Amino acid sequence: MADEEKNLIEILEDNIVVDINKFINYVQSPHCGAIATFAGTTRDTFDGKDVLELRYEAYVPMAIRCIKSICSSARTSWNLNAIAVAHRLGPVPVGETSVFIAVSSVHRADALDACQFVIDEVKALVPIWKKEVYTNGEVWKENSEFMERRDELGKSGPGQCCRKKVVVEEGPEKRGCCAGKVKVNNDAEL
C-alpha cells in the first residue's frame, strides 16, 4: 500500500456506534467535489419475520487486512482521495448502522462507483459474520455475496457493477480472501 493512500478502517467493538460525521470529515477535502457514502442499517423485518437486532462477529486482524486490500484495489480503478470504512461488532439494534463507507474524489462518478465497489467487496470477502435475531429465534446468515462471487468469478455482465473493472488472478500462491492479486481490466466489455 502506497504512503499517499488515505484510508481510515475501524472495526468497532460491542456497543460502539458508528460516528458517521467522523468518517465523512476524514474523507472531506477542499480539492474533492464528491463524497459518496453508504450506510448499512438494521431493518425491522426479514422474510416476514420481525427482527430484534443483528449480531456481528469477526476475525478482526484478517478483516482489517482484507478491507485495506479492498481500498487498494479501489484505488487502482478510480481516482480517489480518501476512503473510510467502519463496521460494528456485537449487537446492532433496529435502525442503527452496522457498516458505513465514505469515499471522496474530485468527481462524483469515481466516488459513487468506488463506494459501491467497496461495500460489495466487504460483503463478499471480509470475515465478518452476521446473526439475525428474531422475536421467535435467531439464525446465522449465509453470506450470499460470497456465494455469488464464487459462482460468478470471471464472468461479467449486467448486475455485476464492479467486476467488469476488476479481475482476480488465480494462482497456486494465492490463498485467503485478501491474497488474490487484483488487476484493473479497462478493456472488459460492459
The number of strands is 11
- In percent, how much strand structure appears in the residues? 25-35%
Envelope shape: globular
Helical stretch tally: 4
Query: Kindly, what is the distance between the CA atoms of the first and last residues, rounded to a whole number of angstroms?
Result: 29 Å
Biggest sheet layout:
5 strands, antiparallel
Q: Indicate the radius of gyration in whole angstroms.
A: 17 Å
Would you tell me the structural class of the helices and strands?
Answer: alpha+beta
Mean pLDDT: 83
Give the uncertain stretches in residue-range form: 157-190
Fraction of residues in helix? 25-40%
State the order of secondary-structure elements, H for helix, E for strand. Answer: EHEEEHEEEHEEHEE
Question: Explain this structure to me?
Answer:
The protein is of the alpha+beta class. It is 28% helix and 35% strand. The protein has four helices and eleven strands; from the N terminus they run E-H-E-E-E-H-E-E-E-H-E-E-H-E-E. It has helices at 20-27, 60-77, 108-125, 144-152, and strands spanning 6-12, 34-41, 45-46, 49-58, 82-88, 90-93, 97-105, 128-134, 137-140, 166-169, 181-184. Strands 3, 4, 6, 8 and 9 form a five-stranded antiparallel β-sheet that branches. Strands 1-5-7-2 form a four-stranded mixed β-sheet, with helices on both faces. Helix 2 runs antiparallel to helix 3 and helix 3 crosses helix 4 (144-152). The radius of gyration is 17 Å and the shape is globular. Belongs to the MoaE family. MOCS2B subfamily. It comes from Castilleja foliolosa. Keywords: Cytoplasm, Molybdenum cofactor biosynthesis, Transferase.
